[in-house]
Amino acid sequence: MLRYDVVVIGGGPAGMAAAIAACDSGAKTLILERDVRLGGILNQCIHQGFGLHYFKEEMTGPEYAERFRKEVKKRDITVMTEAMALSLGADRTVTALSPDTGLVKVQAGAIVLAMGCRERTAGAIALPGTRPAGIYTAGMAQKLCNIDGYLVGKEVVILGSGDIGLIMARRMTTEGAKVKLVLELMPYSSGLKRNIVQCLDDYGIPIKYSHTITRVVGNPRVEGLYYAPVGADRKPVLSEEQYVSCDALLLSVGLIPENDLLNGLDVKMSAVTNGATVDENRMTSLEGVFSCGNVLHVHDLVDNVSEEAEIAGRAAARYSKGELPAGDSVSVSACDGVRYALPQRVNLGDGKVRLYFRVDNVYKDARLVVESGGNRLVGKKFQVLAPGEMGSVEIDRSAICGDVTVRLER
To answer: Which of 80, 93, 119, 344 has its CB 3.0 to 4.6 Å from that of 89, i.e. a possible disulfide?
Structure first.
């Protein structure tokens, strides 16, 4: 049995930031990472756009990861790579398997979950049609292109306008492929506005909103697909079906937090984010277990991931030393245009708390309102709010006099 003050599961941007913060707070820290090196998804994200908020400079994903890897190496942080966490106990024991240690149990004073997320697949969305070769998730196509050096197709269609799909539209184009079309079920993009401009508009790649695939054809490789607009019920209007030829289809249809380790544990989960519900310290309903990054809720910027992970890492270190007081708390809920707000609980006391939120549609000139016990804590005007971009507001904890509600006023 190994013993650590803080065990961080996952060595991506969230895991490294959490481990650094925990170590700097005086905790004996361990990182368990299933890949051969730290960095997570950043290792295959070779495009620019990372670090503008956190480091105040623009860098690629590998550069951002390397900056954190160097910081990890400077500290007395134990790193186990190729280490798969198999189970998590309510007593904060982690069972892991790695080539170096074999099967090992680790007793933790506190645990930080930082496992990231996975992509929805063709099966997950019940993609209609045949199942030929040439259908990839956008992230898998990114890995094949950027890490392994393979071009997945020459004529590409992308379903979904998440950030990975938008970035891969540009990447496929710069590698010589023809991206013929991007289809999006919703009437708006789920990606950042800057990626719509830089990855589609700048390259003349068309996007059709309120459209979806009706069937894929081809054997043994995809030869094309049929698509159609959708009505208000988001069902395809088959009378307006069209055909486009292609030899590759990339799916950018959503991300799912990797919370399988929590199965069987008494951890309250959010039906909206598919992550755990947490307080402002990012502690879940299971004491001593913290969650951060994309395993908690899908972020738009890695800079926000790092900042959130630091909160979880510092709090985990304090908990492991018995310095994180337990007190009364209030719930935080979202309604009237706000899809979710996080954290879902706030402990009473002094100081400021930052709430993060996402809206359920595109809104212009809307006011975000935060209320507690019938009193208005915040009323902040936004010119534009979109589902692809996470917003935040700060509230004064001492002004909280009841459960908190976050909503839009239009």
So the answer is: 93
What amino acid occupies position 209? Answer: Y
How large is the average pLDDT for residues 314-342?
Answer: 94
Which residues of the chain are in CATH 3.50.50.60 domains? 1-118+256-326, 121-253
- In contact, 364 and 386? CB cutoff 8 Å: no
Q: Are 216 and 245 in contact (CB under 8 A)?
A: no
Asked if 9 contacts 107 with a C-beta cutoff of 8 angstroms, the reply is: no
Query: Which of 247, 337, 241, 329 has the alpha carbon at shortest distance from 284?
Result: 329
The pLDDT confidence band at residue 130, using thresholds 50, 70 and 90, is: confident
pLDDT tens-digit map of 204-223: 999 999 999 999 999 999 99
Residue pair 8/313 in contact (Cβ under 8 Å)? The answer is yes
Please check whether the domain covering 1-118+256-326 is classified as CATH 3.40.50.300: no
- Give the span between the Cα atoms of 251 and 139, in whole angstroms: 9
CB 165 within 8 A of CB 138: yes
Helix (H) or strand (E) holding 156: strand 155-159
Integer-rounded Cα radius of gyration of the chain:
22
Global pTM value: 0.94
399: helix, strand or coil: helix
Pick the CATH number of 327-410 from 3.30.300, 1.10.287, 2.60.40, 1.10.3470: 2.60.40
Helix (H, G, I), strand (E, B) or coil at 169: helix
Cα distance between residue 354 and residue 334, in whole Å: 15
Q: Return d(Cα 251, Cα 185) in angstroms, integer.
A: 12
- Residue 325: the pLDDT is 84
